[in-house]
Amino acid sequence: MKYSEIRRKTRIVKVGDVLIGGDAPIAVQSMTNTDTHDKEKTLAQVRALESVGCDIVRLAVPDIAAAETFSFLKQSGVKIPLVADIHFDYRIALAAINAGADKIRINPGNIGSREKVVAVVDACREKGIPIRIGVNSGSLEKSILEKYGAPTAEALAESALYHASILEDCGFYDTVISVKSSDVYKMIEVNRILSAKTDYPLHLGVTEAGGEHTGTVKSAIGIGTLLAEGIGDTIRVSLTADPVAEIKAANSILDALDLARVRRMNIVSCPTCGRTKIDLIPLLAEFEEKLDKSGLRDKPLTVAFMGCVVNGPGEAREADIGIAGGIGEAVLFKHGVVVANKIPASEITDRLIDEIKRM
Ligand code: SF4
């Protein structure tokens, strides 16, 4: 079944030039971890994130002075949409909106009086920018917590819809909902509930997921399970690591599900076994290093890297280009046809790179 057939229908929200929801590609987000007051460092990190394929960047805005960084980034030519992450204080939200934020993350139930909510909603409406509601176990309202006795998936979903209803009361529907949990099962469950109850676009993420390795695995399971069911419109992988690693992980999740905005190289490589007659593991590392250096990683090709002539030729033939290893040498396939026999191991990666350049 095609992905477009299983993807849940959500309303479309516009963040700068990026669309979230509907049939739009899944947008990849991260968050800067520089001090937002430090404009130059924040600019450098925003640019680094943009360069590895980030679609939307969020910045913590703890006070009004930090909101000025949005003007600075826009004046510096930053094109990637910027989200202001605000807790409670509507004046900071207004400052960030005026400074050029493309989206606000704030929970309307935490803003205070209706007048303050209306002030934020009116400012967003005037500039055509959406609001993201962000709920997690720690943000749950006392009444909802008492009703459910614990921060269950149902309780979290109810909280998110409660915040959305406050915006609806102001006639505002340009809303993105995110409910995150560090519990992968709960994160999956709550998004299934939300997907059944609302057509607001959903921002997916496993929160406090851990370091680069464990966090990537948890995120791949949580986010990947939902995306494979057609649920989710934008994603953030949360890692205790450089935010650039979050984008690499998010893009790998999308690549694995063939949902990336731009299809990149798909490398199919065997795990090696007792039949392997060529030193495949260092050869693949060498190949990937050369790919990155030559800027060829974005070519939308399937490249097979197989260790033997038993199973190797089958995979290699399916790929756009590939090798199947023999004893210290390899056979090269291109579009299912053998184009060279007995390439010495020392020449394999250069030959592959040359061939890929011409494809
Ligand atoms: Fe082993 Fe060949 Fe399979 Fe690689 S392709 S794991 S070498 S049988």
Total beta strand runs: 15
Q: Give, in spatial order, the strands making up the sheet with the most strands.
A: 3-4-5-6-7-8-9-10
Q: End-to-end distance, in Å? A: 30 Å
Written as H for each helix and E for each strand, in order along the chain, the element string is: HEEEHEHEHEHEHHEHEHEHEHEHEEEH
Radius of gyration from CA coordinates: 23 Å
The residue ranges in which pLDDT falls below 50 over 5 or more consecutive positions are none
TL;DR of this structure?
Helix content is 43%, strand content 19%. It has 359 residues and is an alpha/beta fold.
Task: Please characterize this protein's 3D structure.
The chain has 359 residues and is of the alpha/beta class. 43% of the residues lie in helices and 19% in strands. The chain contains 13 helices and 15 strands. It has an 8-stranded parallel barrel, surrounded by 7 helices. A 5-stranded mixed sheet has the order 11-12-13-14-15, sandwiched between helices. Strand 9, helix 9 and strand 10 form a beta-alpha-beta unit. Helix 3 runs parallel beside helix 4, helix 6 packs antiparallel against helix 7 and helix 8 packs parallel to helix 9. The protein starts with a helix and ends with a helix. The model has no long low-confidence stretch (mean pLDDT 94). The structure holds iron/sulfur cluster. The site of iron/sulfur cluster has 12 residues, from loops.
